[in-house]
């Protein structure tokens, strides 16, 4: 086995992967809770810019499920950095167990500040993020910046847990900071005519007009909760929330479900990098 193959196996074991990868795992606390992920590189000439975290981690007497999609733009270094550091920074916040929502916001801010300080090493690109922390198989905390999305399925019905941070939605805030939102015919709205999301990590040249403050949502896991989907916009550009839920509702293996969603997005002509994590609760 080559050094590269060994490194890939190590990253897969702890749920850290990029490129055309897939993997799966399950909770030790509740064997019915499983996860799977699958990534496919898009048709652009640059390296893969989607990165994934999918793992269960024991912290003292508690079990955490850590799941994330990081979708880079003009960068694969920044989503790679997020993959290695964002959850660590969140969990290192002293109030994580007492005020997890507050800790998540502080962890996002700290991580973005660290990225901006490392611009010489990480470059001037950026990344969206959607993260989900499952505490003891009972409480799910979802946070996001940008347009990577989290959707939960309850009794067959899709419910979006994240917010797509589109520039047109935050036009007043951007303009109040001295920026502008372009709206050229045939193109999506963009911050300062450049970035198609209003919140992201990095993007130092735009940061004065760009936020990294996450939207945070809390969802309790109950008997009606079937599964959650985390995916980059390579999926959501071509599928609605309900279409994604309907496509995998009868696929019990989480990795097979994640792979099916990426394949369906390709069938629907998605040309972007596509990454998907599915967590099944039944």
Automatic annotation (TrEMBL):
Identification of the protein by name: protein-serine/threonine phosphatase
Reactions it catalyzes: O-phospho-L-seryl-[protein] + H2O = L-seryl-[protein] + phosphate; O-phospho-L-threonyl-[protein] + H2O = L-threonyl-[protein] + phosphate
EC number per UniProt: 3.1.3.16
Keywords: Hydrolase, Magnesium, Manganese, Metal-binding, Protein phosphatase
Domain spans labelled PPM-type phosphatase: 34-281
Pfam families linked to this entry: PP2C
Similarity comment text for this entry: Belongs to the PP2C family.
Family matches, as InterPro entries: PP2C (IPR015655), PPM-type-like_dom_sf (IPR036457), PPM-type_phosphatase-like_dom (IPR001932)
Alphabetized SMART domains for the sequence: PP2Cc (SM00332)
Tagged with keyword Iron: no
A molecular-function term among this protein's GO annotations: metal ion binding
């Amino acid at each position: 086995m080559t050094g590269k193959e060994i490194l890939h196996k190590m990253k897969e074991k702890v749920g850290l992967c990029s490129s055309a990868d897939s993997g799966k795992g399950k909770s030790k606390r509740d064997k019915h809770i499983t996860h799977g992920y699958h990534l496919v590189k898009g048709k652009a000439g640059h390296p893969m810019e989607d990165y994934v975290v999918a793992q269960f981690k024991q912290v003292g007497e508690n079990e955490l499920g850590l799941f994330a999609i990081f979708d880079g733009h003009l960068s694969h270094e920044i989503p790679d950095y997020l993959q290695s550091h964002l959850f660590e920074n969140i969990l290192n916040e002293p109030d994580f167990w007492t005020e997890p929502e507050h800790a998540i916001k502080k962890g996002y801010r700290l991580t973005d500040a660290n990225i901006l300080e490392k611009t010489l090493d990480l470059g001037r690109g950026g990344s969206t993020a959607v993260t989900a922390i499952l505490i003891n198989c009972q409480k799910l905390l979802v946070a996001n910046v940008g347009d990577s999305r989290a959707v939960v399925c309850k009794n067959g019905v899709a419910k979006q847990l994240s917010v797509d941070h589109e520039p047109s939605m935050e036009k007043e805030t951007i303009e109040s900071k001295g920026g502008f939102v372009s709206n050229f015919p045939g193109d999506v709205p963009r911050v300062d005519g450049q970035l198609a999301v209003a919140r992201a990590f990095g993007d130092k040249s735009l940061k004065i007009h760009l936020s990294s403050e996450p939207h945070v949502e809390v969802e309790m896991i109950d008997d009606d909760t079937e599964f959650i989907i985390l995916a980059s916009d390579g999926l959501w550009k071509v599928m609605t929330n309900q279409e994604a839920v309907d496509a995998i509702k009868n696929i019990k293996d989480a990795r097979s479900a994640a792979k099916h969603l990426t394949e369906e997005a390709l069938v629907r002509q998605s040309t972007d990098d596509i990454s998907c994590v599915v967590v099944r609760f039944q």
